[in-house]
């Protein structure tokens, strides 16, 4: 359903065109639909649609759905990323807040997505997650939202979530003393640091800190000595992972100075987490990694798992790289982001199957990792310039570069 500005919405529409020139709005909305398959609409702060399209016209007419649109924008602001909600019509929606500095002016929103789509189990969830992330990326690229504020909100939410997860895990892990947690958690922490996996390393640190605090209580000096032991262990693992020894040892020296200023357990937790981040930064800054070998390992892993959901972080882990390092190498060495390479590999596999087998198109789509046949056809046509059926019959050009 397309929206034409009515006289009552003139102020809202002028706001939107003030944020982005009119000639840039339509291409942005069209590009999002072309890339994700979902219609995108710009809404005012009160949930009123201003520009773009809705997935379902019924949602635009439902007064209650307007409240859900406002809530979707607020939840995205709260968590720093799109949050999927169910509106009054029983359809899915997600949004990104449109902001000027720290003031919310409205939102970019997808609404009216059927809860059940004709796709295999799990594919809708994956499509929605990917579409939500793409919406956030596009809003930040266009300067339509406060990227720094949303990143801070995500970091805050992540810390709270990790604390809760650590407490939950520790309900089933009773340690007799601090040494026992070292013996149990040290291998996992060292492995995460060597791979540059910040998230997993933070999880381990949180578990260790929880037990240290429960045993050490208010004995700050005891807690500091245990934390120093952890830093020594982390820096050793970083050097083994290829980090520059001079840089890593510098971190170790700086940690002694900072630790002396720590006065309580809360400051100690902040200090220790900062040391972890610096250690992993030291690994990522090193040029000693055999990048060609690691990228080849990543490509081999992708080729072997094209039919599966294939998150970037999983491929990075298989290659022995942190997600951020992996993304950097992809762009620097291959000249494209992970999602583009994955799409190309899947389309190349599809071309091979279409040319050398008689599999049904739906089966080709599944074997190449596409959620459903219609989505497969859209992506295939975009990459090759023709439909899968035409390609099979030989009416095609060479795939696009």
TrEMBL record:
Keywords: DNA-binding, Transcription, Transcription regulation. SUPFAM superfamilies: Homeodomain-like. Pfam families: HTH_18, PocR. This is Helix-turn-helix domain-containing protein. Residues 296-394 form the HTH araC/xylS-type domain. The keyword Transcription regulation applies.
């Amino acid at each position: 359903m397309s929206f034409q500005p009515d006289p009552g919405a003139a102020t809202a529409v002028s706001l939107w065109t003030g944020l982005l020139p009119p000639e840039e709005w339509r291409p942005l909305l069209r590009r999002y639909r072309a890339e994700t398959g979902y219609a995108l609409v710009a809404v005012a702060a009160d949930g009123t649609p201003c520009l773009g399209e809705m997935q379902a016209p019924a949602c635009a007419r439902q007064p209650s759905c307007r409240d859900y649109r406002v809530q979707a924008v607020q939840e995205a602001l709260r968590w720093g990323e799109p949050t999927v909600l169910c509106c009054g019509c029983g359809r899915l929606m997600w949004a990104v807040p449109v902001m000027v500095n720290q003031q919310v002016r409205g939102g970019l929103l997808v609404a009216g997505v059927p809860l059940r789509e004709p796709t295999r189990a799990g594919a809708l969830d994956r499509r929605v997650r990917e579409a939500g992330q793409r919406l956030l990326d596009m809003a930040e690229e266009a300067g339509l939202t406060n990227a720094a504020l949303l990143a801070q909100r995500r970091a805050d939410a992540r810390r709270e979530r990790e604390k809760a997860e650590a407490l939950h895990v520790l309900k089933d892990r009773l340690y007799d003393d601090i040494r026992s947690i070292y013996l149990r958690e040290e291998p996992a922490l060292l492995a995460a640091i060597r791979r540059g996996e910040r998230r997993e390393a933070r999880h381990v640190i949180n578990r260790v800190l929880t037990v240290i605090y429960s045993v050490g209580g208010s004995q700050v000096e005891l807690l500091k000595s245990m934390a120093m032991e952890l830093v020594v262990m982390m820096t050793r693992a970083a050097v083994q992972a290829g980090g520059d020894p001079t840089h890593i040892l510098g971190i170790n020296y700086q940690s002694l100075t900072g630790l002396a200023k720590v006065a309580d357990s809360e400051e100690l937790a902040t200090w220790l987490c900062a040391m972890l981040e610096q250690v992993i930064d030291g690994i990522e800054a090193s040029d000693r990694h055999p990048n060609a070998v690691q990228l080849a390992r990543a490509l081999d892993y992708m080729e072997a798992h094209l039919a599966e959901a294939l998150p970037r972080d999983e491929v990075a882990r298989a290659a022995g790289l942190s997600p951020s390092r992996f993304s950097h190498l992809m762009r620097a060495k291959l000249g494209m982001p992970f999602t583009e390479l994955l799409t190309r590999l899947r389309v190349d596999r599809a071309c091979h199957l279409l040319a050398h087998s008689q599999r049904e198109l739906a089966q080709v789509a599944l074997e190449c990792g596409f959620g459903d046949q219609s989505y497969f056809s859209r992506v295939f046509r975009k990459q090759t310039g023709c439909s899968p059926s035409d390609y099979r019959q030989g009416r095609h050009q060479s795939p696009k570069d």
